[in-house]
Amino acid sequence: MNLKIKTFIIFIGDTVILYGSLVLALLIRYGAENNFYVFSSNLTSHLAPFSLIFAVWVIVFYLTDLYDPRNFKNNINFFKNFGLTLLINGFLAVLFFYLIPIYGITPKTNLLIFLIIFGVLSSLWRYLFNYFSGTIGSPEKILIIKPELQNIEVENLINFINHNPQLGYKIEYQLKESSLVELETILTKKFDIAIIPTHLQEKSKITKLMYKNFSGDYRVINFSEFYELIFKKVPLSELEESWFFENLIKRKIFYDPLKILSDLIMSLILFFVIIPISLIIFLIIKLTSKGPAVYKQIRTGKKEKGFLLYKFRTMYQDAEKQGPQWAGENDPRTTPIGKILRHSHLDEIPQLINIIKGNISFVGPRPERPEFISLLKEKIPYYEIRHLIKPGLTGWAQINYRYGSSIEDAYEKLQYDIYYLKNRSFILDFLIILKTIKSVFSNPK
């Protein structure tokens, strides 16, 4: 079953259970009176506020990865995450009704009954869906043609599919590019998807053989597309120059100019809203350590043009007396106040000035220092591609990968950056911002 269809089914099931639980809660509370008018009037008064709550709950489900097919399995991590999500959503519902009483109802008993019913039904629904998600229907059988040389990303994909049957795939056949005789035999058998190396040329022996024996009973997908579908990043080792022309050359006619306008409007609004917080942070930094409160540093932007990036200073004044260094998660150069600012991402506030000036966007690749870029361009293929667009205050790589402090980390994050370059849209930007807000409360920098 298609991964998007599975996610949609989970979403529809959650929606039905949310509203069904509300109806059941009201029936339990008022149904005993055998008065349809009482029940219907209460349903009417509860429907609008609970619908707002349900919308928030669905967003929280997304933020806690309950709509990620990779997590559709009944293991201890899933149940811990699911239980924590229910507690968070219950707490949000209580806050909504008792701190924002605009709807004139404070449903203590009704809310408690609803939470119990939803908790039971939703737990059962998720358990059953996870249990059957890998067994409903037959998994799609895959033929994967591997490069002659061992490729770690190919092996990672095979291993991941083998250990995650809930995705609905099964590696049925795998062989090397040179195994043409074996391939001809396999092409006469039953399978659903053929995954071929991204670098295969149109006139290669494999493509000729597959065309000659093509029955129309299976789909042909190149490796990079399938890898991207599963991991939400691109396999850097599989890419060639032609891939970038095919996937990144197109301009986003409406998206690009509208993003510039929305960045400017939102940054101006936020800048004036958080002036009081900024002043407090400014004073605290000045009073607790020597040096300027706002730190200026040269970063590389779109088309590799340098600009001054503004941040609240989180390190001691002489932190780089021995030259530029990558910042680590527990960097000893960080001041006590700096640790709090970095953990809460409040050190990023001055970057609103950079957004207003047009140096960066709210969402994009992380703006890197030119001292590191010259090294990374030598060590990592296609690293310069990330400079096709403006860097961002946050980004797809930042929310999907830990704080980078090595060439290996930069390589991994580039795969996410290129995924964003290919798939960037307002919807993806919105989801990235939501995940970023979540990380402020859950993950250290």
Give a verbal description of the structure.
Helix 1 packs antiparallel against helix 4. Helix 5 links the parallel strand 1 and strand 2. The model has no long low-confidence stretch (mean pLDDT 86). The chain has 17 helices and eight strands. The protein is of the alpha/beta class. It folds into three domains: 131 residues, no CATH class; 92 residues, Response regulator (Rossmann fold, 3-Layer(aba) Sandwich); 188 residues, no CATH class. It has a four-stranded parallel β-sheet, with helices on both faces. Strands 5-6 form a two-stranded antiparallel ribbon. Strands 7-8 form a two-stranded parallel ribbon.
Task: Supply database-style keywords.
two-stranded antiparallel sheet, alpha/beta, 445 residues, 3 domains, 17 helices, 4-stranded parallel beta sheet, Rossmann fold
Strand order of the largest sheet: 2-1-3-4
Structure classification: alpha/beta
Number of helices: 17
Note the overall shape: flat
SSE series: HHHHEHEHEHEHHHHEEHHEHEHHH
Instruction: List the domain count as a whole number.
Output: 3
What is the arithmetic mean of pLDDT?
Answer: 86
Give the tally of β-strands.
8
Tell me the fraction of residues in β-strands, as a range.
Answer: 5-15%
Q: Would you identify the regions where 5 or more consecutive residues have pLDDT less than 50?
A: none
Using only C-alpha atoms, the radius of gyration works out to 26 Å
**Main β-sheet, in a few words?**
4 strands, parallel
Instruction: Give the % helix.
Output: 55-70%
Give the assembly state of these chains: single chain
